[in-house]
Amino acid sequence: MLREKKKQHYLTNDVELDEVFIPEDFNQEHEMIKNLVEKFVVKDVRPSLDRIENQQFDETVRLMKEAGVLGLISADIPEAVGGLGLGKVSATILSEKMAPARSFSITFGGQTGIGALPIAYFGTDKQKEKYLPDILSGDLITAYALTEPGAGTDAMNIKTTAVPSECSRYYILNGEKQWISNAGFAGLFIVFAKVEGDRFTAFIIEKNFDGVSIGPEEKKMGLKGSSTCSILLDNVKVPKENIIGEIGRGHIIALNVLNLGRHKIAATSLGTAKHAIELAVAYANQRKQFGQPLSSFHLIKDKIADMVIKTYVNESSIYRTAGLLEKSFNQIADQDDVASAISNLAVECSINKVMSTETLDFVVDEALQMHGGYGYMAEYEIETLYRDSRITRIFEGTNEINRLNIASALLKTYEKPIEQTKAQDGILIQEKQTLHLLKKLYHAMILSIQKHDLVMLNEEQEVAAFLADLVSSIYAIESAILRTEKVIKLSGFDRNQQKLDYTILYTHEQSQQLAIRALNLLPHLGDEETLSQLACRLVRSSQKDFVKIKRRIADIIIKEEKYRS
């Protein structure tokens, strides 16, 4: 059983190499999924992107059906309800490799994630039998209707009402949902409403139900090829058998589906970042300034190095979480365990969402900068990626809310550290020592927060944000260290120098930035001596020649014209 709330044991214990899943662990099935999605995107979706961007949604619907035929929609759905049950690692690969499909990837993600999973994981047998076959084939497009005009991030404050009918066979729903992806062509909506004003509940609503109307397409900054509309509910009669889960417990469905959605967005953001790197490096190699390729200039190399370093660490963190999700789902004994399997990794899903979307924005911004004025022109794809990427820090809960969620969860489940039993030796010794200092800083931060009664994190939001970023960095740095150490033990140093360079640079640059932030927080925290000492040690964590290492990293990427792990 999985009911007990999981604590982030990597903050209190050493983590062994065999505990982490890394991309180098992909098996034959994973490679098949990867190749299948890449082929679908290149041969089927990308030739249609101009039409999709012009909102010729018949193309989108056609491609969704093709994805259904290929089994791509059903990959993440349990076999017991008609899916392929390929696991969370395969689902992560699918989301990442769908990213170059741009707006179509949003439609696809809405279908396979927050659209299908509420029914697949929490629906009744009759609901699954009635709706899932058409959802998985792509014949029935789904949409997830939670957001409202007055309750965006504050999802539990929705105003949509559900009142029992006089005959007790229906619930009458009234309200408005806003910014709903896929709404323009969806035939089914997962709608959240409050029964009798206060009992948060999930409903399945078909588009052809009387009283359902769809607003016009929103005029958006980016993702112009995705459908985003309002949904108006005017005395909509919904059969009581269309309630998902229990009345008053819809938050369990909403929050846990969003947790998985955050991980999927992280994977898609990773794929988009890799695509942006390829576009930027190809352009830098082709574009000449002062008689030499743009890629030969050291400031351009510095940008390329930073882009791939952050992407490698992000990738390591995302697939580590995918492995943990797969392990957690494999332990499910019955449907009641599904919520626990997801919520136990809610912190990691939020970490991935925040880190990956902010990495994406950094990468896309630098990629556009490398294009110069041409990057500002719509004929270059990087202009589209720049606009498209901005929403990812808002999707599935803003990054600010995710940071507060991370910090609050950590404070609630805090455990004192267990002294490390193994010596800090072997590969990446200095980086492991830096990681250990970061974990000490985390524990000192928690103790200081408790000592000075700063535990009301909704009030102490600056402290909460730093705590979240500190733990996110610990998770990311540890993921990179473990991945790099694991592959070096498997295939040696010579074949993995690039990974070693990524890990060394990220560990020290990120820890130094965190240390400076910690020092700036000290007057507010009470100027704790322990915190001050730890932060100062982190600032001096490395004397390596970062300039030389970054040039070495960039030269390899420039030669291969693509992201390389």
From TrEMBL:
InterPro entries: Acyl-CoA-dh-like_C, Acyl-CoA_Oxase/DH_mid-dom, Acyl-CoA_Oxase/DH_mid-dom_sf, AcylCo_DH-like_C, AcylCo_DH/oxidase_C, AcylCoA_DH/ox_N, AcylCoA_DH/ox_N_sf, AcylCoA_DH/oxidase_NM_dom_sf. Belongs to the acyl-CoA dehydrogenase family. Keywords: FAD, Flavoprotein, Oxidoreductase. Its cofactor is FAD. Gene3D superfamilies: Acyl-CoA dehydrogenase/oxidase, N-terminal domain, Butyryl-CoA Dehydrogenase, subunit A, domain 2, Butyryl-CoA Dehydrogenase, subunit A, domain 3. The lineage of its organism: Bacteria, Bacillati, Bacillota, Bacilli, Bacillales. Residues 28-139 form the Acyl-CoA dehydrogenase/oxidase N-terminal domain. The keyword Methyltransferase does not apply. Residues 143-236 form the Acyl-CoA oxidase/dehydrogenase middle domain. This is Acyl-CoA dehydrogenase family protein. Residues 248-410 form the Acyl-CoA dehydrogenase/oxidase C-terminal domain. Residues 456-527 form the Acyl-CoA dehydrogenase-like C-terminal domain. The keyword Cell inner membrane does not apply.
